[in-house]
Amino acid sequence: MILVTGASGNVGGALVAELAAQRRPVRALVRDAGKTTQRHEVQFVEGDLNRPDSLSEALADVEAVFLLGGFRDMPGVLAKARAAGVAHVVLLSSRSVVGGHADNAIVKMHMTGEAAIDASGIDWTFLRPSGFMSNTFEWLEQLRAGDVVRAPFGGVPIAAIDPRDIASVAAAVLTRREQYGRSHALSGPAALLPADRLEMLAQILDRPLRLTAQSDAEARVEMSRTTPAEYVDAFFRFFADGEFDDAPVVPTVQEITGRPPRTFEDWATDHAEAFR
To answer: Are 226 and 235 in contact (CB under 8 A)?
Structure first.
């Protein structure tokens, strides 16, 4: 049995669907099973990664876990997993950890997760993707109000990846002994500016969309309304101060899955209705 945490999210949901399509036994961890669309080929189990004691049912008879990082008691979660007999953990991390500064809150979060798994005694594989194409959903409210998108870090290219490609890589490495102890950097096929993404979205939606790049001061104020200060600082260190370059394109998706990563046009076409 494979347990997928974050099963209601972009990556976890895609992974559950892929494993089910492959007819591999999959259990989906969710906080509220009543809010899910039940499928006979998937077991939905309630639990909370912030409360390791809530995971006993979810971990029963599980061989491998796809695990999100960033939870309060990662050692506690991993202790429960090891006690349950889990043999392999695939962690969703970030490529910002490579050469990253441990005092940056985002880097620290992912480094802490990786270190906890390394210390757990469970065999592991780390997936370190670039930024997600699905972050474009942050523009939904603005696009419902008009054709102008105000976005931070307008001059920063990111080789964003479709979450479904992360899920495909995860499906390919889960339970495979040759993947134990390996770390994989992942990216999409091209480094794009916010304006590049918006132009592609405009063509798909047939709308005259245009981008207004926010000043750093304006962006900081707006981000601080919804994001803790230490994470706002981390993003500014990444993209305003140049501490992290998320533009490099790497061939890992093709190497592991046998097919090229999806383009942003692919992602936007598949999610066009959400923006209409």
So the answer is: no
Q: Quick count: other Cβ atoms within 10 Å of Cβ 145?
A: 8
Distance between CA atoms of residues 177 and 174, nearest Å: 9
Q: How far is CA 244 from the centre of its chain?
A: 17
Spatial CA neighbour of 181 closest among 240, 122, 129, 231: 122
- Residue 69 burial by CB count (10 A; 0-12/13-18/19+): exposed, middle or buried? buried
DSSP states along 200-246: HHHHHHT---EEEEPPHHHHHHHHHTTS-HHHHHHHHHHHTS-----
Can you tell me the distance from the alpha carbon of 255 to that of 253, in angstroms, rounded to the nearest whole number? 5
In angstroms, rounded to a whole number, what is the distance separating the alpha carbons of residues 110 and 116?
10
In this predicted model, what pLDDT tens digit does every residue of 41-83 receive, in sequence order? Answer: 788 899 999 999 999 999 999 999 999 988 889 999 999 999 9
Q: pTM to 2 decimals?
A: 0.94
What single string gives the DSSP state of each residue in 141-210? HHHHH-SEEEES-TT--B--B-HHHHHHHHHHHTT-GGGTTEEEEE--SS-B-HHHHHHHHHHHHT---E
CA distance 24 to 30: 19
